[in-house]
Amino acid sequence: MKRPVTVEELFAQPANFFALGFGLGLARHAPGTVGTLLALPIFLVMPRVNHFFYLGLLVVLFAFGVWCCERCAGNLGQHDHPAIVWDEVVGMLITLFMAPAGWLYLLLGFLLFRFFDIVKPWPIGWVDRRVDGGMGIMLDDVLAGVMAWAVLQSTVLWLVPWVIDFLQH
Predict the structure, then answer these.
(1) Which one, of 64, 88, 60, 82, lies nearest residue 14 by Cα?
(2) Phi, psi (5° rounding) for residue 59?
(3) How far is CA 25 from the centre of its chain?
(4) Where are the domains of the chain?
(5) DSSP per-residue codes, 49-91
(6) Closest residue by Cα to residue 32 from 73, 79, 83
(7) pLDDT of 36-69, one tens digit each?
(8) pTM of the full predicted structure?
């Protein structure tokens, strides 16, 4: 199959359109960071739903991501091409699971997710190097999202109340 050359050819296949974050992954600089930003409006327009529905939606978005990222990587001829950012979107949505309302938590979640996605501590880096295909593209960002989620929730549940209590006394 002929590799897409133009944006029009690239987006002629819906899998590419989604995997490239509706085009945000085509940013010249820091496409992963730019692509991660797509998760924020998605998160903000999602109604505050129960946690089981949110988790179910994450599973659907993950499965869809495995398919579309694998197809796009094949179309581009490169595993986990930097322009593929659907994995960042899902990872960021994982980070924001159960996040309190407010821009501070969105910013903190964003910074935490980008940190874990870029630094790739164990087991993220291990998975990134050893798991191929759409599953590999998605899984390292899922793990980054889980680690960022754990830190964000620890901050919400432990650090914020401690700081508030400290400031009141």
Answers:
(1) 64
(2) -65, -45
(3) 12
(4) 7-168
(5) --HHHHHHHHHHHHHHHHHHHHHHHHHHTSTT-TT--HHHHHH
(6) 83
(7) 999 999 999 876 778 898 999 999 999 999 999 9
(8) 0.90
